[in-house]
C-alpha cells in the first residue's frame, strides 16, 4: 500500500479549513437544540426578557461551546492526517481570529435584525457565550494540534 503524502498549504488555508470543518460539525448539535424548542412550540423566538428564553439561551450557549470543542477535535484529526503543519501556533491563532470575526459578524447581524426587541440580558448572554466559545476553540485547537505526536 502506498504511503499517503500530506499536502503543503499555507497557514491561513489550514486555519480556514479548521474553522470551516469545526463550525460545520458544531452546527449540527446547536441547530438540533434550537430547532427542538422551536418545532415543539416551547419558544416562538420571542426575544423579550423572560426566564424561559434566558434559560434556553444559556443552555444553548453551553451546547454551542460543547459543539465547538467536538468540532475542533474532529477538524484537528482531519488536518493532522491531510496537511503538513510547519507552524501550528500560527494556524491556531489565525483560526481563533477567524472564528472571533465570524462570531462578531453573527452577533452584529443578530442585533441588527432584532433591533430593539432583544433584552440586555440576552445580549450579555450572547457575548459571554461567544467569548467562551472563542476561548474553547483556541485551547481545544492548541491541545489537539500542539500536544500530539507527529508521525
Choose one word for the global shape. elongated
Report helical residue fraction.
over 70%
Q: Encode the helix/strand succession as letters.
A: HHHH
* Total helical elements: 4
What ranges have pLDDT less than 50 throughout 5 or more consecutive residues?
A: none
Name a few traits of the molecule:
151 residues, mainly alpha, 4 helices, elongated
Structure description:
It is built from 4 helices and no strands. 76% of the residues lie in helices and 0% in strands. With 151 residues, it is mainly α. The mean pLDDT is 85.
Q: What's a quick, concise take on this entry?
A:
The protein has 151 residues and is mainly alpha-helical.
Question: Helices, strands, pairings?
Answer:
Blueprint: H1 11-39, H2 51-82, H3 88-114, H4 120-146
Amino acid at each position: 500500500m502506498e504511503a499517503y503524502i500530506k499536502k503543503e498549504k499555507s497557514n491561513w488555508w489550514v486555519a480556514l479549513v479548521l474553522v470551516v470543518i469545526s463550525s460545520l460539525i458544531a452546527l449540527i448539535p446547536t441547530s438540533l437544540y434550537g430547532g427542538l424548542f422551536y418545532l415543539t412550540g416551547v419558544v416562538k423566538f420571542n426575544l423579550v426578557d423572560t426566564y424561559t428564553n434566558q434559560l434556553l439561551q444559556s443552555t444553548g450557549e453551553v451546547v454551542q461551546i460543547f459543539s465547538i470543542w467536538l468540532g475542533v477535535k474532529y477538524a484537528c484529526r482531519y488536518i493532522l492526517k491531510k496537511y503538513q503543519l510547519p507552524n501550528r501556533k500560527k494556524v491556531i491563532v489565525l483560526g481563533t481570529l477567524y472564528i472571533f470575526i465570524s462570531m462578531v459578524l453573527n452577533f452584529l447581524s443578530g442585533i441588527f435584525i432584532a433591533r430593539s426587541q432583544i433584552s440586555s440580558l440576552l445580549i450579555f448572554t450572547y457575548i459571554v457565550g461567544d467569548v467562551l466559545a472563542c476561548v474553547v476553540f483556541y485551547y481545544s485547537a492548541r491541545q489537539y494540534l500542539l500536544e500530539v505526536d507527529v508521525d
